[in-house]
Design brief:
Elements (H helix, E strand, L loop, with lengths): L1 H4 L22 E4 L11 E2 L4 E8 L13 E8 L2 E9 L10 E5 L5 E7 L6 E6 L45 H5 L4 E6 L13 H8 L6 E6 L12 H5 L7 E5 L5 E6 L4 H12 L1
Parallel strand pairs: 2-8, 9-10
Antiparallel strand pairs: 1-3, 3-6, 4-5, 4-7, 7-8, 9-11, 11-12
Length: 277
């Protein structure tokens, strides 16, 4: 799993609120997604993509205290501007702040993200849609018989939430899609989170589902057991080599939003609204 092998380990972080609106000189950009250089690219041309970045201080550590509210950025490809605007600070308290770049690359290729005072541009790659098996916004959700309390399907444990089995193991993903309502699939392993921006993804989804009418949420672990060697079927079905990943579909089973690598309450709430509006 890329989330376990490529990205840095979890850090305690600080809950200090941001006090600046622009990045300080000496900060540089760092990726918290598979950028095509350090891990195989996950961004595909032709649909809305999301790439979480962080800020790195001059000492090489992620910026927590003093992280700005927003960063003004420009995305270029071969010197031509492909996107420009601001990206907002996200992240739950105690987690390294991250900044999700959301844009639609029209063509594949080598891109760069730059921001005022942020040193050299950060390079990343966008691939052809046909070069990845990852689902995209607008695709149909892929049905999978995920483990439930009554039918664990050989997965043990079916949930590594610290309080036992979470409430999202009552029906399979296939059954959820058959209800005619919206569906949220969260692939995550709370016990084995190993990224500094992964955050409490499961708890965030649990806090938001009671207020989201018509939604069925399903949680699936990536590992068959605690040996952490054999992957569950959902990983193959969704072509994941990282976690966490949240995929949200509307009542027709069409994907309306995808959050890979990092997510917080604000982003998850928006994703659920896109699928239930």
């Amino acid at each position: 799993m890329a989330g376990a092998l490529v990205l840095p380990g979890c850090g305690g972080g600080s809950t200090t609120a941001p006090t600046t609106t622009m990045a300080s000189d000496g900060f540089t950009l760092g990726a918290r997604f598979a950028d095509g250089y350090r891990a195989p690219a996950v961004l595909a041309a032709g649909s809305r993509q999301r790439a979480p970045f962080i800020l790195i201080a001059s000492d090489g550590w992620p910026v927590v205290e003093g992280a700005p509210d927003t960063i003004d950025v420009t995305v270029t490809r071969a010197g031509v501007v492909a996107h420009e605007g601001s990206i907002d600070r996200h992240g739950e308290p105690g987690v390294t702040p991250y900044y999700p770049l959301v844009f639609t690359p029209e063509v594949p290729g080598d891109f760069e993200l730059s921001g005022a005072g942020l040193g050299n541009p950060y390079p990343f790659r966008v691939i052809e849609r046909s070069a990845t098996q990852l689902v995209q916004v607008g695709d149909p959700m892929r049905g999978v018989d995920t483990p439930t309390v009554d039918h664990p399907l050989g997965v043990d444990p079916i949930c590594t939430w610290h309080d036992g089995t979470c409430p999202f193991h009552e029906v399979t993903l296939t059954e959820a899609l058959a209800t005619g309502g919206s569906t949220a699939l969260l692939v995550s392993t709370p016990r084995y989170c190993q990224t500094d921006v992964c955050g409490p993804a499961l708890e965030v989804l649990m806090s938001l589902t009671p207020g989201t009418s018509g939604l069925t949420a399903v949680h699936a672990e990536p590992w068959m057991n605690e040996n952490l060697k054999e992957l569950t079927p959902v990983i193959g079905a969704y072509a994941l080599d990282f976690e966490p990943s949240l995929v949200v579909a509307d009542g027709d089973g069409i994907i309306r939003d995808i959050l890979h690598f990092a997510m917080d309450t604000k982003e998850v709430r928006l994703a659920l609204r896109r699928a239930t509006a």
